[in-house]
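3.2 Worked example (two chains)
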Amino acid sequence: MLPNRMNLTKQTEEHLKKLKQNTGISPNVSARIAFFRSIESGFKCTNTTTVKLDGVLVLDKVTWLGDTQLVTELMMKMHYPNLQGRELMAAWAAHVEDGIAAIRNHKNLSKLSISI
C-alpha cells in the first residue's frame, strides 16, 4: 500500500496552494479531487522512476487521503498491482498532477464546483 508519509512534486504543490488562495479548498482536499478526476479520465502513469517528488509539503497518508483512503489505495492497487511503496506514491502523485491540471485555474469555488 501507500507509504505513511507522502509528498508531491513542487509544481503540483504550487498549483494546490494557488487553488487554495482562489477557492479556499485545502491542498489535501483538492489533491483528492484531482486524483479522482485523473482516475476518471483514464490516465495511466507509465514511468514512476522518473517522477521527482521534490515538494516540501510532506503529510501523512491519513491527512492526504482522509475518508477516501481505502478507496484510493484500492484504486491504486487495481491500476498498479506490481507497484509498492515509493513507486506507488509516485504513481499517486502523477495522478494528482494530471488531475490538478483541469482544476488549477478556477478563480472561485462556484466555478470549481460546476466543473467537477
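3.2.1 Second chain
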Amino acid sequence: MRYPPIDGFWTWDIKRDRVYGDANLSAYFGLTLDEFSHGAPLERCMQSIERDDRPRVRLAIRKAVERRAGFREVYKVRSEKMGLRKILAVGQCYVDDCGEAALYPGWFVDLTQDTACEAQALREVHNHVEQAKDIAQSIGHDMLSYLLDNVEEEVEQRLGVRSGRRKSS
C-alpha cells in the first residue's frame, strides 16, 4: 500500500507511558513541543482525539500492544492550531529482551484534503444521479427512476444531507 507523504512521527515508551513526538505531532494534537520532547502521557494525547473516535482508537492500541502487532487507524483530531483534521495513524509495537511490549513508534498523515475531495466527488455524483432520475421519469421508466432515487438517497446520507422526501414506488 502506498501512503501519502508523512506529516508527523511519534514514539511511545509503553513502560514509562511517555509519548515523544515532533513539531507536527505537537501542532495536530495541541500539546506543546516541550511536552513531546520530555514525553507526554498517552492519555494526554488521547484528549485531542474526537470523542466518538476515542473508544475505537483505545481498543486498537490495546490490541496492538497485547498482540505485539501493528496499528492502522483513521480518526479525527482537534487542536487550536490545526482545527479538526482527519488523520491516518500507523504504528508498530516492539518488545524488549523479555518479550514485553516496550516501544511503539509510528507516524501519521493528514487525510483531511482527501475527505474534502471525496465530498466534492459525491456532490458531482449526486447531480448526475438527479439528472439521470429526471430523464428516467420523463421517459416513463419507473423502476429505473426508483433505483436512481435509492442511489440518490445513499449519496445524500454519505454527504450528511437529510432529505424530507419519501422514495417513489
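3.3 Remarks
The first strand starts at residue 8 and ends at 13.
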